[in-house]
Design brief:
heterodimer, A: mainly alpha, ABC transporter involved in vitamin B12 uptake, BtuC, two-stranded antiparallel sheet, 15 helices, 73% helix, B: mainly alpha, two-stranded antiparallel ribbon, 4 strands, 2% strand
Chain lengths: 344, 340
């Protein structure tokens, strides 16, 4: 079942060695909290190092700008996080939504085309959110209703979405400008971009919904132990469906912000998929029990945003940014798996 | 996950294979799901377009939209067969392409250039193997990290990710022959595909190594406790996957006479799709080379057929997505009915 054959195997071996029933994992949260503290410390270290190295880094405007720039990837990563919470973290058989980036591309194309065709912002917003939700619904029906593996179903939906985007835009950039879009891409009088408010608002809503309500707790139960959740009488399919709907809606919201930021729809939104996946998976280490959480994903979004920004300010070549992201993912995941291994 | 005894009854019920044999007719039909899909799709396009069933069209499908994706999907099948996934096939393709093109541009002999390309690809495979077996990182995340790092490596090595073009005067006859030559009337890239597919098939189905890999893919813990050398075999799989992808990179850059940065990414999702379609629609029930080849062929035929019946490039992508979706729906729905 599990893809991480080795981690699972080691877990079991250690459980056997200590003579316990493997069903009840021995808990010693020290390493986990150490890891969590460690990753928070790493976050702070990155922050302090850049502040010392560049006088421009720790300024109010710069911080606000970075948060604004991270909004789109961040909101998509929130969507993916909710799917992983509800589907379990096994990448192939658990929850994953690879259609998010194409969902954004399609939504943005719909928004720009509607504005171009003379419709107002309100219509375009409703249509974009509806597109996002429908993509989520198609994913949900094919995964829950038909039973297709999430990885495969969302890859197929991804193809359909990016195809529809091409049909709509004829593979060209559609530039649009409305007062509302200009406002959204701008900043308030304190210099805080409205995109920063947007990611803050979405994060706040999702943190409350997923971390502090009965719904959220049950979604975790469904994701972590489906059979137990079913035995406890939870309507498991409904919860999984809801996680894909959240994800689709996040795609729609991100599409509106994307259109505002780029003043229209452009090709190449699919480039965003892998960074989004990386961000969502990286978020795990910021939670106490190494679970996917919205707060953790927010932190990892900001960490990656600050890293990219700091390197830019230090005139480090942008060539290195994606390599450093990769190393970051690997070191964080390696640390996680070491922490799990020590749990004996 | 845990020992079976501690699982709730509902979980172990799913594990019981014999329950599946309740409807033998449907099961037998499903065994040939992929063949049926392939024949059905071909018949549909043959009816819709007179040019579809011509040898020239099939030659074009095989050379232009089958050869490279097939090699990359074979690499993916190795990883999927061992219960993992290899997202860094794209990195292996690009790095092999870069090393090979640089070597050819520097005037190295053709075999040396090929070796340089394969060596560059092997580096990504070794790196993956170390991450997965040494640091216990799940294959998805390990190869995702490699993919990101590979992007930076390309940017640094190729001066910001600029393409490297080979001037025609520098191309040796060997390079041209590899890309555009033919032997006994069959284009050379197809021989490369055939050789790699045959080697991978023998390796996975007919050797002890292959049996061990399949065991690891099906039941990792059981394989581990049965004393199989899980780590060693997994490390080999990712090295092989990278080498196979690397040969696709070499073939790709011979065809276009250039190194184009990040060109491997375009193949990634289709390779995953083909490998999983081959797994789920095939007779064997595990990732296998014939299934993957048929899967790639199916995707290539759909793309070609839609083009022939007059869909433009944009609608073609929508159509491909819808076709894959329908095939998956059919496959999973019938599987579910069978189990339920």
């Amino acid at each position: 079942m599990s893809v991480s054959y080795s981690a699972a195997a080691v877990d079991q071996r250690s459980a056997f060695a200590s003579g316990e029933t493997p069903a009840r994992p021995a808990r010693r949260p020290v390493h986990r909290s150490l890891l969590r503290t460690g990753s928070l410390l790493a976050f702070i270290a990155v922050f302090v190092a850049f502040s010392l190295a560049s006088p421009l880094f720790l300024t109010f405007t710069n911080i606000a700008t970075v948060i604004g720039q991270s909004a789109i990837v961040g909101i998509l990563a929130f969507g993916l996080t909710s799917v992983i919470i509800g589907g379990g973290s096994d990448v192939v058989r658990g929850g994953i939504d690879l259609s998010l980036a194409s969902n954004l591309g399609l939504g943005s194309a719909v928004y720009a085309s509607l504005i171009q065709a003379g419709y107002g912002d309100a219509t375009a917003i409703v249509a974009t959110l509806a597109v996002g939700l429908s993509v989520g619904l198609v994913n949900a029906v094919s995964i829950v209703g038909i039973g297709i593996l999430p990885l495969l179903a969302t890859v197929a939906v991804m193809n359909i979405c990016s195809g529809l985007e091409l049909v709509l835009t004829q593979n060209t950039a559609i530039s649009v400008s409305t007062p509302w879009l200009d406002l959204l891409s701008g900043a308030d009088r304190f210099g805080i971009p409205y995109l920063a408010y947007a990611i803050g608002a979405v994060a706040a809503v999702l943190i409350v919904a997923l971390q502090y309500t009965a719904y959220g707790l049950r979604l975790y139960a469904v994701g972590e132990h489906r059979e137990a959740a079913r035995a406890a009488g939870l309507p498991v399919p409904a919860y999984v469906v809801s996680s894909y709907l959240i994800s689709g809606l996040c795609g729609g919201i991100a599409a509106i912000l994307y259109t505002a930021l780029l003043s229209g729809s452009t090709t190449g939104s699919s480039e965003m998929l892998l960074p989004v996946v990386a961000t969502a998976l990286l978020g795990n280490v910021f939670s106490g029990r190494l679970l996917p959480t919205i707060g953790g994903t927010l932190l990892s979004t900001l960490l990656i945003g600050f890293l990219a920004n700091g390197f830019q300010l230090l005139h480090v070549s942008s060539y290195w940014v994606s390599g450093i992201q990769g190393l970051l993912i690997l070191s964080v995941v390696a640390a996680t798996s070491l922490a799990r291994r020590r749990r004996s | 996950m845990t020992v079976v005894a501690s699982n709730p009854p509902a979980a172990s019920r799913r594990e019981q294979r014999p329950a599946r044999q309740d409807s033998p007719r449907l099961r037998r039909l499903l065994q040939y799901g992929l063949m049926i899909a392939l024949i059905g799709v071909s018949a549909f396009f043959a009816l819709m377009s007179p040019t579809f069933l011509t040898p020239a069209n099939f030659g074009s499908i095989l050379v232009n939209s089958f050869a490279l994706p097939a090699i990359i999907a074979i690499a993916m099948t190795l990883a999927v067969g061992s219960g993992g996934i290899d997202l860094s096939v794209a990195t292996a393709i690009d790095l092999a392409s870069l090393a090979y093109v640089s070597a050819v541009a520097a005037g190295w002999a053709f075999p040396v250039a090929v070796l340089a390309g394969l060596a560059a690809a092997a580096l990504t495979g070794i790196f993956n193997g170390l991450l997965i077996t040494g640091l216990n990182i799940t294959p998805f995340l390990a190869t995702l990290g490699t993919l990101f790092i590979g992007r930076s490596v390309q940017q640094v090595l190729a001066n910001g990710g600029n393409p490297v073009y080979l001037s025609p005067s520098k191309l040796s006859t060997a390079v041209k022959f590899l890309a555009h030559g033919s032997f006994l009337g069959i284009p050379l890239p197809l021989y490369v595909v055939g050789l790699i597919a045959l080697a991978a098939f023998i390796l996975l189905e007919l050797t002890i190594f292959g049996r061990s890999v399949r065991a690891i893919g099906a039941r990792p813990q059981v394989a581990y406790f049965s004393g199989l050398k899980v780590r060693r075999d997994i490390a080999w799989i990712y090295l092989l996957s990278a080498l196979v992808s690397g040969s696709a990179g070499i073939l790709l850059s011979s065809t276009v006479s250039a190194y184009i940065p990040y060109s491997g990414n375009a193949f990634l999702l289709n390779a995953i799709g083909a490998a999983f379609i081959g797994t789920t629609l095939g007779a064997r029930g595990h990732a296998n080379i014939p299934g993957t080849i048929l899967g790639v062929l199916l995707l290539a035929i759909i793309a070609n057929g839609l083009l022939l019946i007059g869909w433009n490039f944009y609608w073609q992508q929508v159509g491909t997505g819808v076709f894959i979706f329908l095939i998956l729906t059919f496959s999973f729905a019938s599987k579910r009915r069978q189990q339920g």
